[in-house]
Amino acid sequence: MSRNAFLRQLLALQHQPKESVHSVDLEAALKRNYMEVSRLSSYWEEIGAISHFSNRGGTGTTYRLTDKGLKLAKKMQTDYQRKKIGFIIISILIIAIATLLIF
Known about the structure:
Layout: H1 3-13, E1 21-22, H2 23-30, H3 34-47, E2 50-54, E3 61-65, H4 67-102
Antiparallel strand pairs: 1-3, 2-3
Helix pairs in contact: 1-2, 1-4
């Protein structure tokens, strides 16, 4: 799993700009365990893209995108969408060319 997917998923789960996302929700969405999510969050926290807060009693963690993280996540999301659309267009062109060559 890429580090970028972590940030994009956090953006998707964060419905409002300053809303926090619980670690359990993030683990379920990413299909990763607590340690992997914690490792990824440490990377993004060093960069300053997210902030995390431990819940009282050690029952989990909540994550929130910072302003820098919000900009990064939105940029990554648009880049991901462009790559996906580009792949679809290229696939359609290859199928169309192959069809023309066959017939």
